[in-house]
Amino acid sequence: MNKIIKSLIPNLHQEFILVVFLLVPYVLLQFDFTKKDLMILSTVFMIFMVVWLAKAFFQENETSQYKGFVVLITGLSLFVAGLYASLMYYFEIIAIIPDSIVPFLYLFFPIWIMLEGALLLFLLGFDSSVQSVDLGRKIVIKKPLVGDFVMVSIATVLLIILGELVLGLPWFINICLVFTVNLIMINQFSE
Questions:
Q1: Contacts of 100 (CB under 8 A, 6+ apart)
Q2: Largest CA distance in the chain
Q3: Is the model's pTM score more than 0.85?
Q4: Which of 7, 72, 136, 177 holds its CA 20 to 30 A away from the CA of 96?
């Protein structure tokens, strides 16, 4: 059982937080905010992103608090995005009662993302020294290169365009697709 849990937890790189920051304005644009509200929210998230980027580029040591922050932001964003998307998409496809099972296959993305987020938040609540699953070792914190952030940004934007224009996915499923592919890409190609 322990090996299954270890394999489910991705090796989280701090660059994934940039994906979260990039998706926030995309999400905000989907709702009917006034221009003033949208500007205020975007400015707040921009300030958070600048502070986090400064921390990422000028960090001196790998503190357990910072690793906990990476897990918290990642877990929360994955869980909320997955839960919202799975509920919205499920009710959307049930309303039209499709004649094939294909539309239900897209539910894989939000459900998998939601479970990943829930698992991260669940493990965050335990002391990893007591746990046989050492969550701290799954968090990869190193001084990033500018290229790391450029590649993550390009991948995120291209995936949004692919999901919206090519696949025609609803925006909430698109977010889960972006999270899924970015997690896989960051895990496989980050070095």
A1: none
A2: 57
A3: no
A4: 177
